[in-house]
Specification:
By secondary structure, the protein is mostly helical. The protein has one domain: Up-down Bundle (Fumarate Reductase Cytochrome B subunit). Helices cover about 70% and strands about 0% of the residues. Helix 1 packs across helix 5 and helix 4 runs antiparallel to helix 5.
Length: about 170
């Protein structure tokens, strides 16, 4: 549960910073934000790997029978598809950002301390192809996260089935 909320917070903050920093003129502030964004991306990637390992060894509780029976089949399929696509994008977005940074010739030094290997050799043309892909995948992730949050809110306040309560800290 803690990883879920931490990753949700990181996704929203990173997306906001990503959108903000791209419109800044070249400056020390822009460079600082780009480095922070890269560090956060690598951290997010590591946390996602931890979450996937956790998920592989700790299955989530099944939906309560009343909720599962009340949900139309298309909602159940959308629920599973959204989760699978989000996990795919949890890896694809930061890896695409890392690939862009590598191809553009901007190495990642995690928290200014640990140089990370380049995923690709420097290739400016390839970097220009990867950059919009990173942005598109980030937009797709934010869209899916929004759908995910919207569905949880719908279950809580429209269906009133308590589904969101299962993911709230301090639940019984």
């Amino acid at each position: 549960m803690a990883l879920h909320w931490l990753l949700a917070l990181v996704i929203v903050v990173m997306f906001g910073v990503g959108v903000y920093m791209t419109d800044l003129p070249f400056s020390p502030q822009r460079l600082k934000l780009y480095n922070w964004h890269k560090w956060a991306g690598v951290t997010f990637l590591a946390l996602t790997a931890v979450r996937l390992l956790w998920r592989a060894t700790h299955r989530p509780p099944a939906l309560p029978a009343a909720i599962a029976q009340a949900m139309p089949e298309w909602q159940t399929r959308a629920y599973h598809a959204t989760h699978h696509l989000m996990y795919l994008l949890f890896f694809a977005v930061p890896l695409m950002g890392w690939a862009y940074s590598s191809a553009a010739g901007f190495p990642i030094v995690w928290f200014g301390q640990m140089p990370l290997p380049d995923l690709l050799p420097v290739n400016k043309e390839l970097a220009e192809l990867i950059k919009p892909l990173h942005k598109m995948l980030a937009l797709a992730l934010m869209t899916l996260a929004g759908l995910h949050a919207g569905a949880a809110i719908k279950h809580q306040w429209v269906d009133r089935d308590g589904l969101l309560s299962r993911m709230m800290p301090g639940r019984s």
